[in-house]
Amino acid sequence: MVKRSYNKTPMAEQDPLVRSTNFKEVALGYTLAEGRLEASRCLQCKNAPCIQACPVMIDIPGFIKAVNENDLNLAYQVINRYSNLPAICGRVCPQEKQCEMVCRLGQSKKFEPVAIGKLERLVADWALDQPTEPLTIPQDKGRVAVIGSGPSGLTVAGDLAKSGYQVTIFEALHQAGGVLSYGIPEFRLPKATVAKEIQKIIDLGVTIETNVVVGKTITMTEIMTDFDACYVAVGAGTPHFMGIPGSALKGVAASSEFLTRINLMHSYEFPQYDTPVKKGRHVVVIGGGNVAMDAARSAKRLGAERVTVVYRRSLAELPAREEEYHHSVEEGIEYSWLTNPTAYLGDEEGQLTGVKCVKMQLGEPDVSGRRRPEPIPGSEFVIPADEAIEAIGQGANKVLFETYPELALSDRGYVEVNEDSCRTSVPGIFAGGDIVTGAATVILAMGAGKMAAKEIAEYITAKKQTNQPV
Q1: Mind listing the pLDDT tens digit for each residue in 281-294?
Q2: What pLDDT is stored for residue 3 in this prediction?
Q3: Residue 50 — left, alpha, or beta (φ > 0 → left; ψ -120 to 50 → alpha)?
Q4: CB-based burial of residue 330 (10 Å sphere; 0-12 exposed, 13-18 middle, 19+ buried)?
């Protein structure tokens, strides 16, 4: 019997000095021996809290037990019953705030929680390397349209296809994957991994039509005429801007544009792809979430001499994953805490030369429960910069909704749904993911997709029985 370790089994990574110059994946994955060692730490709890903390309710002790017993095929079968995108979740899911946070082993002062995410990645990567054949599932229970091929759309499509529904995904961009393809950098989530996971969804019988902008290329009315139900999962990709003076200067950009040029337009593969993307020498990134980390670390890899993340709160309030923050520090990213930009400065040619900032202090808690940052009078200073990237959040794209006003929206422009069913104000239309919650995590979007798949199946069954919308 393997002696249980106090600490998580470490995963090999690229050296920081090397990886900060390339876009190859940082974390290299467990070997089977390392995975079995880590799996041996699991207590195999009854009524395991890690399952309840997982938005898609994976039988975590079940798949870990199979890993420990050297049965990766069984481990994948267990995971596959709950998740359609395990190789992705094993890399980008915030396990430390979900399943691993409630791990009973980690509740002890002696032990760290089991590395659930790393084990999920081990199993999923093994499965992606195995030869497979498309499944032959009769798709005769009904036709469902899915708008958006991000994690929520892929999840609902996969679950419905497994249940016998004919599913067509409409994707506005030329490549499927949504934020998985255009938002998350190669060094965190390789495009080849995303492509393999999407192919598994296609192998279930799902059709993906790219370059289709619903509201322009095809209307919602046409979709609702041709399909029994529709799931709206268009995400929240419209960038928010600070709107401070100088925002129109050359060198000021939104993180979504910056990352899309790198990810979807392949500038990370320069010179094979000569994508036009600004490569600043002194870069300032505004924000403290995972997107800010991605932008800062990408700018470093593009050759920036100095990258500074400006965040208006302190490290204690930083919303980014702890792992991403530590990786960024190892790679030489600098931080200016309790700092907020007030203006962008430029030269006579309209080129950014600096970011004017003010120091902040934390006051009383705001509606989010975090202490509200307040400017300190007379504390202004300038950070020299030739590129500034704003990563302060994103909102809803209004193309679909402007052409289909029947769909009720919230005051913030997101789709209003029944939280227990993903049903919208229009019978037969369901919605989930970031277009409902605002920008959140991949796994939460997947959780909404799983709920919606069940509700859509029930809706279509009732509709066919009564021969009318329900």
Answers
A1: 999 999 999 999 99
A2: 58
A3: alpha
A4: middle
